[in-house]
TrEMBL record:
UniProt xrefs under SMART domains: EXOIII
The keyword Kinase appears for this protein: no
InterPro entries: DnaQ, Ribonucl_H, RNaseH-like_sf, RNaseH_sf
Any GO MF annotation of the entry: DNA binding
Record-given protein name: DNA-directed DNA polymerase
Natural source organism: Pseudomonas indica
The enzyme's E.C. designation: 2.7.7.7
GO terms under cellular component: cytosol
GO terms of biological process kind: DNA replication
Gene3D superfamilies the record matches: Ribonuclease H-like superfamily/Ribonuclease H (3.30.420.10)
Catalyzed reactions per annotation: DNA(n) + a 2'-deoxyribonucleoside 5'-triphosphate = DNA(n+1) + diphosphate
Keywords, ordered alphabetically: Exonuclease, Hydrolase, Nuclease
Positions of the Exonuclease domain: 41-211
Length: 236
């Protein structure tokens, strides 16, 4: 197969023919459905980025783990550092600890993102503070692949307080919920480790959801919409 570069659009990313074919074969996403939480395959994702500006900063690494058959599939994990050898790192390196040498030796972004989306398949995505991860991932996919992200995201930072309204959880960050439920986390601010911690939190929350008669992602999302409206009404 030819390896010469094709230009997908006049101003789009330069991709090889093989990359174009892989992109065009990516699975169409499932919508949120009434498949039970025990049967639904979900991908928990965490990103490490060069900063918090979703318009300018870049994805540095991706960590993800699959939840299948009601549990975390430790044999189905994804971890990748993206090649960013021209990036000038800011103070964020003190948090994520990804050295310039690791970024220089990382996987070319288009390849890394294709690998990740092939791992995701048609599954919905979960994240803690999902709007940030979704915006960062969507921009990276558009910039590097000319691909529009349409997979639904569920935000566990909203699900947790909705299902546990009486929990006294400080700022409500991932560390706070990990401490609240007594989870053992070996490492933080590493994409793969954070994805695993988030997946463990998700399983606890899904158990709570089932006890509250929400046994699928569609029911959870509907309840979240009601919860948001009530919260916004109280804040007025």
């Amino acid at each position: 197969m030819s390896k010469f570069t094709w230009l997908t659009t006049l101003r789009g990313p330069a991709l090889t023919q093989e990359q174009l074919e892989r992109r065009d074969c990516l699975s169409l996403p499932q919508g949120l459905s009434e498949v039970s939480l025990r049967q639904q395959r979900m991908i928990v994702v965490d990103l490490e980025t060069s900063g918090l500006n979703t318009s300018r900063d870049q994805v540095l690494s991706i960590g993800a783990v699959a939840i299948e058959d009601g549990g975390i599939d430790l044999g189905s994990q994804f971890e990748c550092t993206l090649q960013r050898d021209q990036l000038v790192l800011k103070e964020s390196v003190l948090i994520h600890g990804i050295a310039p040498s690791a970024l220089a030796a990382g996987t070319e972004p288009a390849e890394a993102l294709l690998d990740f989306m092939e791992f995701v398949g048609d599954s919905p995505l979960l994240a803690f503070h999902a709007p940030f991860d979704r915006r960062m991932l969507a921009r990276a996919l558009k910039t590097s692949l000319g691909y529009t992200l349409r997979h639904p995201f569920l935000d566990l930072a909203e699900v947790a307080p909705m299902l546990c309204p009486h929990a006294k959880v400080g700022r409500g960050g991932l560390d706070d919920w990990v401490e609240h439920f007594g989870l053992q986390v070996q490492q933080r601010h590493n994409a793969a480790a954070d994805a695993l911690a988030t997946a463990e939190l998700a399983l606890i929350l899904f158990s709570r959801a089932r006890r509250q008669e929400m046994d699928n992602l569609l029911a959870l999302d509907r309840r979240l919409n009601v919860w948001r409206r009530r919260r916004n009404a109280y804040s007025l």
